[in-house]
Here is the input.
Amino acid sequence: MKHRMVVRLLGLCLVWGLVAAAYGQGMYWEAKRSGGMMGDKAETDKMYYMPGMFRMEVGGEVGVVIIRLDKQMMYNMDTKEKTYSEMTFAELEKMSKKAGAKMDEAMSKMQKQLEGMPEEQRKMVEQMMKSKMPEKGQKSQPMNVAKTGEKQTISGYACTKYVVKEGDRDLISVWATKDVKGFDSMRKDMEGFQKRMAAMDPRGAQGLATAMNTIDGFPIQTDMPGGMKQVVTKVERRSTRDDAFEVPAGYKKVNPPMMPEEKEAPETE
Here is the structure.
C-alpha cells in the first residue's frame, strides 16, 4: 500500500513536469525510478504528451494511465488482462470526498480505542497519528518551496535545487532546469490541471501541487519520501498518434477499484 502511494505521488510529479514543459506538437520523456522500497532495483517510466492529452507507462507495471484534459477524463488500463476503467474528474473528486469521510470515521473510532490506554502510551500513539494524518477539521501544515543555491548538472542539464517544505519539515527535493524550453507558455494549462488534482485530495497534500508550481523549471531529478528517486534521462519533442491516448479496441470495461457498486460495461468497439 505504501509503495502504491509513493508511485501515485511520483505520478503527480511526473504529470506536473509533463504539462509544465510541453511545447511544440508534443513531448516524450523517460525517467528512471529507484531507491526506497525498491532497493537496488530500478524501473523506467515513460511519458507521452500531446496538447490536452497524456499517457503514463510505469515501469514494472502492467497498468497504463491516460488522462484526457480535453475530456476531463482518466482511464486506467491493464495491458495484461486487456481491461480498462474510466472516471471523470468530477467522479474522482466525489470519490475523494467519500474517502475523506471514511478516514474521519476511522480516526474517531481509533480515538475512542485510545481512551483505555495508559496516558503515556496514549500520548505517544496520538502524536504518531498526528504526524501521519491530520485530524478532522485540523488544518494541514502549509507547504512552501525554498530555492537553494545548490547547482548540479544532471542528465546533461544545468539544474538548481529546490526543497518543498511542509511546515519546517523537508518533504521533497527537486533539481529543476530552465534549459527545457516551453515552460512559460504552458504554465496556465499546468495551473488549471493542478487545481483539479488538488481538489481530488481528501487530506493534507492539497498544497503540494501549488507549491510545485512555484518551482522555476522542468524537474530533472525528484527525491521522494522514503528514499525513492526519479531522474529524467531523456527528453525530446515528439508527436504521438492520437490513438495512443485512447483505449484499444477489444478491451473490456470494468469497475474502478473504489466503485464496485457499478455494473461492468461491454467491451469497446
In short: The first strand starts at residue 27 and ends at 35.
